[in-house]
Amino acid sequence: MKDLIIKLTEISSPSGSEEKIRGLIRNSIEKYVDDIKIDNMGNLIAIKKGNSKGKTIMFDAHMDEIGIIINHIDKNGFLRFSPIGGFFPIHAITHRIQFQNGVIGVIGEELRKDYSKVTPLDKLYIDIGAGGKKEAEKYVGIGDVGNYFAKTIVTGNRIIAKSLDDRIGCYIMIEAIKRIKKTNNTLYFVFTVQEEVGIRGARPAAFSINPDVAIAIDVTDTGDTPESSKMEVKLDGGAAIKIMDSGMLTNRKIREKLISLSKKNKIPYQLEILERGTTDAFGIQITAGGIPTGAISIPSRYIHSCSEMVSINDVNACIDLTVAFGKEYND
Ligand code: CO
Ligand code: ZN
């Protein structure tokens, strides 16, 4: 478990540059599925075939992560950048950025005149240690993408890493693929691209698969830290079954099935209402003629930082619930 989670989270694959993570996931699942393909968007689609008595179920987790893209290099060799997805300045200053070729830089900020305010992204820069523009250009160029560089820590019952959003969802699907041996249902496990820039991979995948039902697996916020927002979800509370977020109301029948499967299989669960943020489930639900869609969420603190934190107990509950749904869903 530990080794695969470390590999999945430490790899660099921001939205639009999912090649590395896609290769790793493909290698991890290939021998456990009947068919595997990459669609025109770059989504990795793995299929376990069922029979005519079963339903078609699409499981979804996104492979991409937030990051940055270089848009300017100044004469002293400092890099300016645009965000890829929800890259927030409050989490960024003095953290390290790794580019696809392995070059690492530090995020610095222009002189902050008012310390009650967070420096906006356009006043931040990346320092790769270059002496000037010419030297910087030996290592990086306009359009190069990077993401947080951070070591993954698996300790006690906690995982701390960058990109647990949503590599932990990818991990849950990989484990479910390994554990589901035979079922009547035909299962599509879709590892999507470009979620962080606006749910751009999941929609075409859902349109072409057009499943009977879909479940997205992604992180959600928690309300269990000092003075946090009022939210019922907490670490160690179990798999979070989504009722609503800012993009969707989950299909009632699907979420009731997730709740009854949790009870039946004694899987710890909690109910989720997330006021800000959404997942691939939002895009899937309103694709084609509309697809009954639910979501299983992994409670996570510090989302979109280099130190996202989840509970291993919750991760295991999410795997159990994904397996139960894949095997037992039948109406
Ligand atoms: Co995210
Ligand atoms: Zn996510």
Structural class: alpha+beta
Number of domains: 2
Largest sheet entry: 8 strands, mixed
CATH architecture classification of the largest domain: 3-Layer(aba) Sandwich
Question: How many H/I helices?
Answer: 9
CATH superfamily of the largest domain: Zn peptidases
Distance between the ends: 33 Å
User: Rg, please?
Assistant: 20 Å
Q: What is the number of beta strands? A: 17
So what's the overall shape? Answer: globular
Give the topology.
Blueprint: H1 2-10, H2 19-29, E1 35-38, E2 44-48, E3 56-62, E4 67-73, E5 79-84, H3 89-92, E6 96-99, E7 104-109, E8 124-127, H4 133-139, E9 145-148, E10 153-155, E11 158-161, H5 164-179, E12 186-192, H6 202-209, E13 213-220, E14 239-244, H7 252-264, E15 269-273, H8 280-285, E16 293-299, E17 308-311, H9 312-328
Parallel strand pairs: 3-12, 3-13, 13-16, 14-15
Antiparallel strand pairs: 1-2, 2-12, 4-5, 4-9, 6-7, 6-9, 7-8, 10-11, 11-17, 14-16
Helix pairs in contact: 1-5, 5-9, 7-9
Bound molecules: cobalt (II) ion and zinc ion.
Cobalt (II) ion (CO) binds at residues 165, 196, 304.
